[in-house]
Amino acid sequence: MPFPRRNRSLPLWIALAGAILVLLGASRSLRADDAKATAVLTDSETVIGQPVQMQIKVTGARGARPPGAIVVDGLDIRYSGQSQMIEGHNFSFSYSFVYTYTIMPERPGTFQIPPQRVAAGGKTLMTEALTLRVVDDGAGQADEDADEQTQSVPRGRLGFVDVVFGKTTAYVGEMIPVEVRIGFRSGLRVESLGESFTVAGQGFTTLNFTRPRETRQNIGGQSYQVLIFKTAIAAVRSGKFELPPVEITPGVLIPRLDRSRMPRDPFNDPFFQNFFNDPAFMPSERRELKLKSKGATIDVKPLPPNAPADFGGAVGFFQMETEAKPKSGEIGDPFTITTSITGRGNFDRVNAPVLADDQGWHKYPPTSKFDQDDDVGISGVKKFEMVLTPNESKKEIPALTFSFFDAAKERYVTLRSEAIPIQIAGGSAPSATPASAAASNAPAPGATPKAQAKPDDILYQIADWPGIGVAFVPIYARPIFWALQLFPLLALLALVGWKWRQARLGDRTARQRAKLQREAAELEKRLRKGSAPQQYYADATRAVQLKTALAENVNPNVVDADLAALAFHLDETMRRRLDTLFQKKDELHYSGGRNGHGEVSFEQQQEVTELIDQLRV
Amino acid sequence: MKSAILIGLCTLAFLTPARADEPKQFADANAAYAAGNFEKARDGYEALVKAGQWNAALFYDLGNAWFRRGDMGQAILNYERALALDPQQAEARKNLHLTQERARTLQLSDDWTARVREYAEPETVAWMAAAAFWIGLFLIVLAFFARPRTGRAVLAAIALLLCGGGAFFLYTVETGNRGQDFAIIIGQNVPARVATADSASNILTLPAGSEVRLLSTRGDWSYAELPNDLRGWIPTNTVERVRL
Q1: Of the ranges A69-73, A130-134, A362-366, A590-594, which one carries the lowest mean pLDDT score?
Q2: Which of A465, A493, A495 should be substituted to probe chain B, the one whose Cβ sees the most B Cβ atoms within 10 Å?
Q3: How much is the pLDDT for B140?
């Protein structure tokens, strides 16, 4: 059943009337309220580097102009933004404008933020003065929670840099491990560490910094993210050195802790609490920190006198192992000595061990390779490979010595390897003579060679002037070489020409033979058909001439009966028949065209055909 | 006709550089050497070298003069030059070995061409390769005009292969360790460095007379193949090419 119509329209009417009353009340309240301005701090006490917010709230005005720059010595105050609020009470509504400022304390102390002038509703309003106390960060006090290496880290700092020297008293050349610890309060985002830094100045050599190791430390109840750089320094001269502090200016993003934004957690949900408290999602401000460590004093003592002759400046503690390959050979053969020096110290000053006795040996400059087993490079193994060749028969490779200064025991130590037995075949080599000493042994120009030259001295001068000079360019780059190639080239061209001509001549002969063969075949056909006697015998004679010419490779026109008989080795009977054939042809040819019978008889044709068929080689 | 020939001979005599002084200069330098005046002898030989009168004997004698002066790098350089001009010169080879031992030089490693050179010098190989080339071409021509061709074609292929092998050998020798870029260290204990700076790390210290192969030059530095299969930068003024 439908509802009565009147019941449905009543709430709408009431709502409209309420709205009109609200608007009337609001306009009346706006006119009625007095404009006022108040200023509050989110915290009245903070530490250096921890920002607080100041809010200036203007109520009872439709618009306001906030104060411009607020300058207080020791505080960095910057405008952050504004928000607007409408508040209603018993149909009385009021507008509020909130202007927010971020205050970054720069030094400890109690600061007065003076009253601020706000223009609102055509009037000038003044806020009350505020007091902000910035807590002293406790510099110089030991932190009970910090470990030994970060005792100098002040409490409450946004960051710190601390340099830890492995020792403050060392010998010249001794490696001093150094650790640079740069810490940032958790929650800060580090954009850069600024310019590079050094830990030692003049009078020191410094190894390269390692890649930083990252760790987290709790110092004074505050969690820090700490980057640890390692290196090592070594003094190059003795004395007392004041090492300057390490100064860095890292760029960091500092989150703004706006507690007024989230006065209450609307969802009361730990997830949302964590989400909104994550610095990555908070508005942040970029700032360049100025971090500075404390200076240090290093006392560098000189190395004691009377160093061993083979001492090359190595300071630390080392051990030596030596091996040789091969164990046998001949005079002049190379022997490779591999020496491994293991330990901790200044490996850049660890030189190759030296032979205790190098008489009778040729030494070649050694090669070296260093494999470090720490981050910095002051511990590891340095391997030397040295090639020796014996000049004379030897039974062992002499001992190798290596000297260093042991800083812990404060004395020089000389390591000496054992001599390595080897076998060398061959006789003894002559001892060397200085070059200058051999000068007087030079033979006169043109002297007989070899007889006057000592075995260990250079040979005689060549006295004969060889004449024409020669060039260093290889033979194939000289013009004469290529000029000489013209001769085989010409010979080759001549051969090609000759062969080509021969081929052409051969072709002509072949063509002529083919022509003669074709003519002979044609004549044989005609002879089988028969014709007038004059023509018949002329054809038969021509056939004989052609066959003979093909057999003897001669001109067919010069062939007569004797030549044909000779060519085909005919007997007497056949020879007479050939003569008869040639005579008959001549008779018929020279006696007139109509002499003789009208036709050649079958027997005569058969006789001629048989005769021609028998003409075979 | 006679006058034309006479004019031609006179012109030829005028154009041909006078060579009468060179034997005398050479003899004078030898005399200075025999008298123990090695500096004068060296200068005499150097003057002939500068005049372009190059021959193996001259470089050999010059090498001896440098040896007597105690400069092993220059001595080895000139012995190497003598051998480059005449690989069969036994005196230069003997003195070179002796000087290398004295100076404790470092030497480049030999490649496969060294074994071939024990039997035939590059010049001989060049002539043999040329002969094989022409023989191959002749056989190809003969094979072209004859039947059957197989035998001659095979022989031609063998000849051309020999020619190609010879050419490859010559190329390898020329571009190898002892080719056109073969050089000798003339400075004393020259450090080879990883970069073109005096402060750069030292790769190898090269005694005078050590062998290198120059690869490139940058400013006052030369990049070189070093003994022990290393490469590094050495000052250009401490090294000289064997070939002039």
Answers
A1: A590-594
A2: A465
A3: 87
Q: Is the pTM of this model over 0.90?
A: no
Kindly list the distances between the CA atom of residue A306 and the CA atoms of A15, A174, A411, in Å, as whole numbers in the listed order. Answer: 109, 18, 10
Q: Is the confidence metric ipTM above 0.85 for this complex?
A: no
Select the residue from B38, B40, B54 to test the A interface by mutation, using most A Cβ atoms within 10 A: B54
Are the CB atoms for A262 and A276 separated by under 8 Å?
A: yes
Region A41-48: mean pLDDT is 80
CB contacts of B55 in chain A (<8 Å) are 466-470
Alpha helix (H) ranges present in B35-121?
38-50, 56-69, 72-85, 90-103, 112-117
pLDDT attached to residue B210:
93
- pLDDT tens digits, one per residue of A130-139: 888 887 654 4
Closest alpha carbon to A334 in A391, A271, A384: A391
Task: Please state, in angstroms and rounded to a whole number, the distance separating the CA atoms of residues B201 and B220.
Answer: 17
Cα-flanking dihedrals φ and ψ of residue B219, to 5°?
A: 60, -125
The answer for A 427-446 residues in CB contact with B (under 8 A) is 432, 435-436, 438-440, 442-445
CA–CA distance, A514 with B52 (Å, rounded to integer): 71
Q: Which residue in the set B31, B174, B242 is minimally distant from A474, CB to CB?
A: B174
Query: Is the CB of residue A432 less than 8 Å from the CB of residue A410?
Result: no
pLDDT tier at A482, thresholds 50, 70, 90: very high
Distance separating alpha carbons of residues A296 and A300, to the nearest angstrom: 13
One-letter identity of residue A393: S
Q: Tokens for A293?
A: 């460590």
The confidence score (pLDDT) of residue B74 equals: 95
Could you write out the DSSP letters of every residue in A34-103? PPEEEEEES-SEEETT--EEEEEEEES-S-EE------BTTEEEEEEEEEEEEEEETTEEEEEEEEEEEE
Q: Which two tokens stand for residue A274?
A: 């964590």
Are A499 and B142 in contact (CB < 8 Å)?
yes
The chain A residue lying nearest B55, using CA atoms, is A469
Chain segment A406-433, per-residue pLDDT in tens: 988 888 999 988 888 888 875 443 333 3
Q: How far apart are CA A318 and CA A402, in angstroms?
A: 9
Report CA torsion sign: A485, A486, A488, A493: positive
Residue pLDDT, tens place only, A329-355: 877 778 889 999 999 999 988 988 988
Compute the mean pLDDT over every residue in chain A, rounded to the nearest whole number. 77
Identity of the residue in A442, A472, A485 whose CB atom sits nearest the CB atom of B84 = A472
Q: Are B67 and A435 inside 8 Å of each other by CB?
A: yes
Q: For the residues A493-499, what does the mean pLDDT come to?
A: 91
CB contact (8 A) between residue B85 and residue A472: yes
B127 and A475 in contact (C-beta within 8 Å)? yes
> Which pLDDT value is given to residue A381?
92
Closest among A137, A132, A232 to A179, alpha carbons compared: A232
Q: Which of A344, A360, A363, A362 is nearest to A352 (CA)?
A: A363
Region of A306 (left: φ > 0; alpha: ψ -120 to 50; beta: rest) is: left
Contacts of A438 in chain B (CB under 8 A): 68
Tokens of B55: 């021959």
The mean per-residue pLDDT over the stretch A243-250 comes to 86
Contacts of residues B112-121 at CB distance under 8 Å and 24 or more positions apart, as own/partner, are: B112/B172, B113/B169, B113/B172, B113/B173, B113/B176, B116/B169, B117/B87, B117/B173, B121/B87, B121/B88
Q: What is the DSSP-derived secondary structure letter of residue A348? A: G
Query: What is the reported pLDDT for B78?
Result: 96
Which residues of chain B are within 8 Å of residue A362 when distances are taken between CB atoms?
101, 104
Strand partners, B28: none
